Amino acid sequence: MLALTYVKENTFSLMEKPKPVLLDPTDAIVRVTLASICTSDLHIKHGSVPRAVPGITVGHEMVGVVESVGSGVTRVRPGDRVAVNVETFCGTCFFCRHGWVNNCTDPNGGWALGCRINGGQAEYVRVPFADQGLTPIPAEVTDRQALFAGDILATGFWAARIAEIGPEDTVLILGAGPTGLCTLLCVLLRRPAHVIICEKDPLRLRFVREHYPQVTAVPPESVRETVSRLSAHGGADRVLEVAGGEETFQLAWQCARPNAVVTVVALYDRPQTLPLPEMYGKNLTFQTGGVDGCDVAQILSLIAAGELDTTPLITHTYPLRDIMRAYELFEGRKDGVVKVAVDCTPEAAK
Ligand SMILES: [Zn+2]
Ligand SMILES: [Zn+2]
Fold first, then answer.
1. How far is residue 299's CA from residue 315's CA, in Å, rounded to a whole number?
2. CATH number for the 154-288 domain, one of 3.30.565.10, 3.40.50.720, 3.30.70.920, 3.30.390.50?
3. What CDD domains does the entry give (predicted)?
C-alpha cells in the first residue's frame, strides 16, 4: 500500500509498505478513505517533534472503514464507517477514567498515531485500543463532515468545554488557523454575548468575515480597543489562546478582565513568561494543555444535527498519490488554503 513516510528531518516520502496487520486483541485495521494534513505533521517534518520515530507513516486525522478487528474489540465491527481519534488511550487507567485521556499511562497512550506508531496518510492504518480510538460515524454524516472530529475539532470542542463559557460572556479567541476556526465553531455552540477573533493573516481574517459574519474579526493592532469596547467589565470574560505566536500569550492575559479564565490551547516553540507582578490582583485562572479527545461521539451527533459544520475549512482535495503536492500547498499556505483533504481510496492511490 502507499504510505507517506517520515524518512528523516525535512524528508517525507510516499512509498510502498506492507499493509498493517492486527498485533493486539484490542487493535483494529481501518481502510482509510479520507485523511488530512495537520500543522503537527509539519512539525514532525521540520524535526521539532523529538519523539517522532523515523520510518513511521505520518498522519493522525482520518476517517475510514473498519476492515478487521481483534478478539477484544466490542464497540466496532468490520464494515463500520469510523472517525479515528488522534489520541490513543486505554480507557481504564486513572487518567482515562477521569476523562483526562491525554494523560493515559499506557506506553502507547497520548499522541502515538503518525508520530510514534504508523499513522493514516496511507491506504490502511492499525488503530490500537480500537474501542476508544474509533467512533462510528452516523449514516447521515459524510466522510468530509467527519474528517476533523478526532483531532482539530476535538481540540476546539475540548477548549470551549473547559473554558466554561456563559451566555453573558465576551469571548476572545486568538488565532484563526484551522484549530482556531474549529475552536470558534465550538465557542459559537455555547452562544456567548460576543465573540471576537484576532488574527494577523489578512486572508484568514477575510475567511472568518465571509463565513461567520456574526463574529468580530480583528487584527492584533486593534484587538485591545475592540475587546474593551465590546466587553462590559474592562476585558474579555474568556480568552482562548490558539495562536501560539511570539506575543500572543501576553496578549491573552492582557485582554482578559479580572477573574477571567484564560485557556491556552496553543503549542509554543519557546517558553513563555508569566509576569506575576504585573498580573497581581487580576486573579486570573489559566487552563493549559493538550486535548482530551473523548467527546468525538458528541461532536459527530452535533454534526448530524446540523449544529457543527467544518466542511468550509476543506479548501482543497488531492488524491493520495499527489500528497506531496498537497504538502507543498499546505506548508506554503498557497492559494488561500485552510485545510487539505486527501482521498486515500484505492483509485486515488493508483
Ligand atoms: Zn493534528
Ligand atoms: Zn488510559
1. 21
2. 3.40.50.720
3. FDH_like
